[in-house]
Design goal:
Length: about 140
Amino acid sequence: MNNNNAMMVFLGAIAIVIGAFLPFATLVAVDVSYWGVAHTEKFIFLAGVIAAPVLLFMGKDKFMILSTLIAWVSLLFPVIKGLFKSNDGGLLKQISSEVTNTIGNKVGSILFDFTNYEWGAYVFLAGLLIFTIGTLRVWKAR
């Protein structure tokens, strides 16, 4: 295993964990972070990210791809859930769904608009990129 790849995994994981608590964007004078917006998936995501350096330290390199997949699936879970969401139901159900998803939709649009990021989002995204490349390189080199 290359030490540079291991360093990428560790630095990426640290940047992700720190970036998860930093402000992603400002909505109506309120800072929004991944930790503040994500629900249950934030725990699964951070557990997957933290598991990779632990597995690397324990010498279980072949399982690191699972922690990366867990992190990515939990990060993209709201998007995946939205793709398969049924539009059945009456008008009242659709209106209540729209009202409850307003903040989530706004945050989702900010995540895909690179002009509205605060500095914490750049730390998070850079860490995610470094972490993913590092874990794939370690996994491939095993």
